[in-house]
Amino acid sequence: MSSPERITFDPNQCGGRPCIRGLRVRVKDVLEMLAAGASEAAILESYPYLERADIEACLQYAARQVDHAVLSLAK
């Protein structure tokens, strides 16, 4: 399963927010744990049904979300 396929969207689950492989674990949850200093090992221990590739997919998803052009309104 490639990274994009690991991130799923279902309007009937978690308010349509991006989740991991259809599970009720939001991308946001994993990113917040990483931002708070949790290690991959700690996340995988807390969520044993996740895989290392799921965490990587979350990071790749976040990177794609912030990669957009910035337009300048220079005169």
How would you describe this structure to a colleague?
The radius of gyration is 14 Å and the shape is globular. It has 75 residues and is mostly helical. The chain has one domain: Arc Repressor Mutant, subunit A. It has a two-stranded antiparallel sheet. It has 4 helices and 2 strands; from the N terminus they run αββααα. Helix 2 (27-35) packs across helix 4. The termini are far apart. The chain has helices at 3-6, 27-35, 40-46, 52-66; strands spanning 7-8, 19-20.
Layout of SSEs?
Layout: H1 3-6, E1 7-8, E2 19-20, H2 27-35, H3 40-46, H4 52-66
Antiparallel strand pairs: 1-2
Helix pairs in contact: 2-4
What's the architecture in CATH terms?
Orthogonal Bundle
Give start-end ranges of low-pLDDT stretches: none
CA-atom Rg in angstroms:
14 Å
In the CATH scheme, the class would be Mainly Alpha
Total strands: the figure is 2
- The SSE string, one letter per element, is HEEHHH
